[in-house]
């Protein structure tokens, strides 16, 4: 048993000063069979600690239902076995470029902007969730023989709100559920963020990517005493669909890391290893300085230009950071562990079945509802996936524009069974007017919920109504298809022979593997959708880039035949080949 405390200028382990050299690695973005390899990579880089968030929505998909909360405990056990300490950031909000910032969609539907405040209903849900979660964390604190040194209160709250009473309540919940190690907050190094997000008597840390001395000077204006720590040193960045792949020069990043350490501070690399937003859990941002602009969905890869890349390999940044971090160790650093073997040989899928989206919805979708106006995804219990809306245009009437108010995010529109266009929030009106009578079908897809800023928790679907000219179209039939429905398999889907190129729907096929190992899946000629191999959700693909393939962890594959499902939501190209699996 050991005691970890916060001194006047240092962190103290059993009364002796200690510097935390930490790196972020999200257990939920790494296949569990690869945790130990990635943790060993962090040790080899020169880190002595690992930090992770906990996404509430992943573990509580519906009210009163929890799902594998024990994964948190298993990860912390792996951390201890790897000889590392741990910092846990349980939220309830985490950002992390994760769907809805980790908050359950059913919760933000109920509470709206009352989430992340001292609202009694929100806190009741938090207490219930933390009661489950902290049973995995509390017994693994360092004063009980585990690796956990510190636990965070909320996350960058000063970037969002100013309800100090809420933070006080959260700290009280953590203590009441058995958290005895030091608590901390983390915020940007700006006065309004630190004043809004910090808590008296709780360690305050700062997040930044450069200019460490200026950041710590700002922190010292708010906290004269206490150890300095950059809780998020942004050594890379994330990508958006239809954007550019973001990279940071390794030498420049290593120089920024050196400046942090020369300031006498502890550090947490964000990210040390980013991993992948498997299962369609990637979030989204809003453009503009105030995060009120166009939606910018995050790609499936969370490589983050981190020192350990998405496949777990050391990059040039890894070696530059290792050189800097080695100066803060008395013993030589361990060598990186052998990298897991890549796929033995490329292989192309053989597509054996196909079902139109309507049949997939019938087999795996929720119950159909009939309401005067379009229900939101959240009302239909859809977190990640799509909703089919159907409405009639009365007639006879002349052609008028058809417009979707408050569309979030994409809609493939059919008029009398013929595809009429693809609409988006920024382009919500069909190019060709629609005459009545007509039957309109909208397949609306969420591209990821906002994970940061004032638009957090905004609803998905057709949130403002369907307009024909200036008249609302009422009596809307709606049915949702959540990606969780695929967890039980697709055997209930009535597959037929694959059609020619162009048809959206669910494709089923097989990949014959020789030499199972880490791979990437390419889908040239496919437009947008989701992929599963052996029932494991790899995430979203999209032809707009910049991501061009999906990472397939080696433990997902098996020798011989592997089952492939591709849910194409828009269309395939005229010359599209079958998906192919390549070595990383």
UniProtKB/TrEMBL annotation:
Residues 374-475 form the Beta-galactosidase 1-like first all-beta domain. The keyword Hydrolase applies. Pfam families: BetaGal_ABD_1, BetaGal_gal-bd, Glyco_hydro_35. Residues 504-562 form the Beta-galactosidase galactose-binding domain. Residues 11-327 form the Glycoside hydrolase 35 catalytic domain. It comes from the Bacteria. The keyword Hydrolase applies. The active site is at 156 (proton donor), 232 (nucleophile). Keywords: Glycosidase, Hydrolase. GO terms for biological process: carbohydrate metabolic process. One of its GO terms (molecular function) is beta-galactosidase activity. InterPro entries: B-gal_1-like (IPR026283), BetaGal1-like_ABD1 (IPR048912), BetaGal_gal-bd (IPR048913), Galactose-bd-like_sf (IPR008979), GH (IPR017853), Gly_Hdrlase_35_cat (IPR031330), Glyco_hydro_35_CS (IPR019801), Glycoside_Hdrlase_35 (IPR001944). Belongs to the glycosyl hydrolase 35 family. This is Beta-galactosidase. It comes from Streptomyces broussonetiae.
């Amino acid at each position: 048993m050991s005691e970890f405390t916060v001194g006047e200028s240092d962190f103290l382990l059993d009364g002796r000063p200690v510097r935390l050299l930490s790196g972020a690695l999200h257990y939920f973005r790494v296949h569990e069979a690869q945790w130990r390899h990635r943790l060993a990579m962090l040790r080899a880089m020169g880190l002595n600690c690992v930090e992770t968030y906990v996404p509430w929505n992943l573990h509580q998909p519906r009210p009163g239902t929890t799902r594998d909360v024990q994964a948190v405990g298993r990860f912390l056990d792996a951390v201890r076995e790897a000889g590392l300490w741990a910092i846990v950031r349980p939220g309830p909000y985490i950002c992390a470029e994760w769907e809805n910032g980790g908050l359950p969609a059913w919760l933000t539907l109920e509470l709206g902007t009352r989430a992340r405040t001292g609202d009694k209903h929100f806190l009741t849900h938090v207490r219930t969730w933390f009661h489950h979660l902290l049973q995995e964390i509390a017994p693994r604190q360092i004063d009980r023989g585990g690796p956990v040194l510190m636990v965070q209160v909320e996350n960058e709250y000063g970037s969002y709100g100013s309800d100090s009473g809420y933070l006080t309540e959260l700290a009280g919940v953590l203590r009441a559920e058995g958290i005895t190690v030091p608590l901390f907050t983390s915020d940007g190094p700006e006065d309004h963020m630190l004043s809004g997000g910090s808590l008296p008597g709780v360690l305050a840390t700062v997040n930044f990517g450069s200019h460490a001395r200026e950041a710590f000077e700002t922190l010292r204006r708010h906290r004269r005493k206490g150890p300095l720590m950059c809780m998020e040193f942004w050594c890379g960045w994330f990508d958006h669909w239809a954007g550019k792949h973001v990279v940071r020069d390794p030498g420049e990043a290593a120089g920024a890391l050196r400046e942090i350490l020369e300031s006498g501070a502890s550090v947490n690399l964000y990210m040390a290893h980013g991993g992948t937003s498997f299962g369609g859990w990637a979030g989204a941002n809003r453009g503009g300085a105030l995060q009120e602009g166009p939606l910018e969905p995050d790609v499936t890869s969370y490589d983050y230009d981190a020192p350990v890349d998405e496949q777990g390999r050391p990059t040039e940044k890894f070696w530059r950071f290792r050189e800097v971090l080695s100066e803060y160790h008395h013993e030589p650093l361990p060598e990186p562990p052998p990298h897991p073997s890549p796929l033995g040989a490329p292989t192309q899928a053989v597509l054996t079945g196909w079902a139109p989206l309507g049949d997939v919805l019938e087999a795996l979708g929720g119950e159909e509802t009939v309401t005067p106006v379009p229900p939101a995804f959240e009302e239909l219990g859809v977190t990640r996936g799509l909703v089919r809306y159907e409405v009639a245009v009365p007639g006879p009437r002349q052609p008028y524009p058809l417009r979707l108010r408050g569309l979030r995010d994409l809609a493939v529109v059919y008029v009398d069974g013929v595809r009429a266009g693809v609409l988006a929030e920024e382009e919500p009106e069909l190019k060709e007017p629609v005459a009545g009578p007509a039957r309109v079908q909208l397949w609306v897809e969420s591209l990821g919920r906002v994970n940061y800023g004032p638009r957090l928790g905004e609803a998905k679907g057709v949130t403002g109504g369907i307009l024909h000219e200036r008249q609302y179209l009422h009596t809307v039939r709606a049915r949702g298809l959540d990606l969780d429905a695929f967890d039980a398999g697709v055997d209930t889907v009535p597959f037929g022979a694959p059609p020619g190129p162009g048809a959206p729907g669910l494709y089923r096929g097989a990949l014959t593997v020789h030499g199972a190992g880490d791979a990437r899946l390419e889908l040239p000629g496919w437009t947008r959708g989701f992929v599963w191999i052996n029932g494991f959700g790899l995430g979203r693909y999209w032809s707009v880039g910049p991501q061009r393939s999906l990472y397939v962890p080696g433990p997902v594959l098996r020798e011989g035949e592997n089952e492939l499902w591709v849910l194409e939501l828009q269309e395939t190209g005229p010359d599209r080949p079958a998906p192919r699996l390549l070595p990383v």
